[in-house]
Amino acid sequence: GGFVCTTGITLFDTDIAAPAWSNQVSFEGLTLSTTSTTSYVINYTRFARCNFVNCFFDSIRLCITTDFLISLRLIGCLGRFITGRFIQAADAYDLHIDNCILEKITGTVVYSTAGFAGCSITNSLIQSNSAKCIETPNLAQGLAITGNYFENNTGQTLDIGRAVGVTFLGNYINTSQTTPDNRAITTFFEVV
């Protein structure tokens, strides 16, 4: 089963005001799709501790929040043909992406304006995206990026302002397709 929208809307929202968020919401085996480039699945300002397991994001962004994102899990999900940033938050706490395929995304795959804390991206395929893969202009602390396969992305793989306890280990980056973005920034080096 799943949901398809044709206008720029949030598929799931709640009228419960923070700090009394909707908690422990799990989405499993859903196909979420749109024909609009401005739709997204959840308003994360009012959700916390959400799980997406084996879901397919077809052309739809997961979340955009001007506040913090906390305890979000993506496990075994597929995201494809997405216009804009897939995940965008002011602060990202306890965000974990595991065993996912994220490809053909035109905006940064995972973006946080204020930074990442206690987050991980593991055992995933991140391929054929036309922007940066993981980005924050500020602090990343306790960020683990391990065991991933990066290929044919035109933006930088990892772009963070400051790092404390960041692990980038055991990832494969297809070096035969080093991007002009990565070559042009002398302080950035592809990690192999």
Give an overview in words.
The protein starts with a strand and ends in an 8-residue tail after the last helix. The strands form 3 sheets. Strands 2, 4, 6, 8, 10, 11, 13, 15, 17, 19 and 20 form an 11-stranded parallel β-sheet that branches. The chain has an 8-stranded parallel β-sheet with strand order 1-5-9-12-14-16-18-21, with no helix packed on it. The protein has a two-stranded parallel ribbon with strand order 3-7. By secondary structure, the protein is an all-beta fold. It is globular, with a radius of gyration of 16 Å. It is built from 1 helix and 21 strands. It has one helix spanning 180-184; strands at 2-5, 10-12, 22-23, 26-28, 31-34, 40-42, 47-48, 50-53, 56-58, 61-64, 68-75, 78-82, 87-98, 101-105, 110-122, 125-127, 134-146, 149-151, 158-164, 167-169, 172-173.
- Structural class, by secondary structure, is mainly beta
Strand fraction: over 45%
Tell me the number of helical segments per DSSP (H or I, 4 or more residues long). 1
Mean pLDDT across all amino acids: 87
Helical fraction equals: under 10%
Distance between the termini: 40 Å
Low-confidence stretches: 182-192
> Could you say which overall geometry the principal axes of the C-alpha atoms support?
globular
